[in-house]
Amino acid sequence: MTQSAAENEDDLLTLMFMLCGGMATGMFSFGVLFNPLRDWMVQYHLLSQGAEVVIPFVDGIGFGWPQIVVAAGLIVALVSTVVWLRRRARERV
Questions:
Q1: 28-61 pLDDT, tens per residue?
Q2: How far apart are CA 61 and CA 65, in angstroms?
Q3: Which of 31, 41, 75, 92 could disulfide-pair with 47, CB 3.0 to 4.6 Å?
Q4: Residue ranges per structural domain of the chain
Q5: Angle between helices 35-43 and 5-33 (to 10 degrees)
């Protein structure tokens, strides 16, 4: 049985949501299960600890404002790159 393009797109979208959800769950579990890694991330300021925490993950460790600003900057850079690539592709056609 063949599937239409719309059904294939729906399946791909569902798979992407499952993949993103699994990655997010894995990332948080990874930080919880490996205490030495979590300590290393705090030592090198990839995570904040104590009163600096704005978005807590576990045991008073999480994202502070510097980490939030960096994450937001990365998201803005990613979105800008995607928009630029789409405009560039549209101009070529």
A1: 565 566 788 888 888 998 889 989 999 998 788 8
A2: 13
A3: 41
A4: 1-33, 34-93
A5: 90
